[in-house]
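Hi C.,

You asked whether I'd gotten around to modeling the 259-residue construct. I have! Everything is below, sequence then structure, no commentary in between.
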Amino acid sequence: MSQLLNRRFSHIVVFSGAGMSADSGIPTFRSGSNGLWGEFDPRQLATPGAWARDKETVWGWYEWRRGHVMAAQPNPGHVAVARLQREFGAQVVTQNVDDLHERAGVEGALHLHGSLFAARCDRCGARADLDDPPLEAQRRLTPPTCAACGKGSIRPGVVWFGEQLDDEVVNAATRRIARCDLLLIVGTSGVVYPAAGLVGLSPKDAVIVEINPQSGEVAAQVNHRWQTTAALGLPILADRLAEAASGDRQAGLRPSADA
C-alpha cells in the first residue's frame, strides 16, 4: 500500500464485479439464491434458451432480482468509488447489472453485462419502462408486451450467457483501461470472459490493485493483492490517496485530479 502513495495518478479506473455489491446483500451467481429460488441454478436461467423455453420463470426470477436490488443500499465501497470519481476523476467499468454505483453518486459507469433497469423488447429492441416489481416474489410472471411493436415480449436488459457484449460499451471500456495508470480490480473472480480479459489491456507501467476476499484469476501483472471486501478496503484506499494528494498540495505540487 505504501508504494501507492509514492506516485500520483491521473487516470484511475475501477473494474468491479459481483463482490462489489455483496456487502449490500446482493447474492453473486457463485453464492446462488435462496428461498423461492434456492433450487435453481442461476446460470441455467440466464440464457437465451431458458427465455425461449419458459419466459414466465425467467421473468419472475429477474423481477425478484430487480426488487432485491431496489431494496438494497450502496455500501461503503460504492460510496468510496464515488468519492474517487469526485476527487480524482476515477472512471468505472463494471460487470454488475445493479444500479448501486449510480445510487452512490457515480456517473458514466460502463455496464459490460447490461442492467436490470434497461429492459427491452425481445423482438424490436425498443426500451421499456417498468413498474415496480411485485412486493412478494413470484415463481412465474408474464413479461409485458412491447408497447412499440405490439408483438415482442419485454426481456431483462442484461447480457445472458451465450450472447455478445455490446460493442460500443466494450470499446469504451477498452479505451478507459488502456490509458489508466491505476486499475482497481474489485470483487471479481476474473473468470467470466470476455469481460475479464479487459483487465489485461492496462498499460505495462500501470499500477494494478486487486481487492477481493478470495484471490481471483485476474491479470498476472497485479502489483498488490488485498484480500478484503470492497466495503472495507475501498474507503481505506480512498483515504490514503486523499492523504497523499493533500501532501502534494501542501508541497506545492499539482494534485492528481487536475493532471
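If it helps when you're writing up: Strands lie at 12-16, 91-94, 110-111, 120-121, 154-155, 182-186, 207-211, 224-226.

Thanks,
B.
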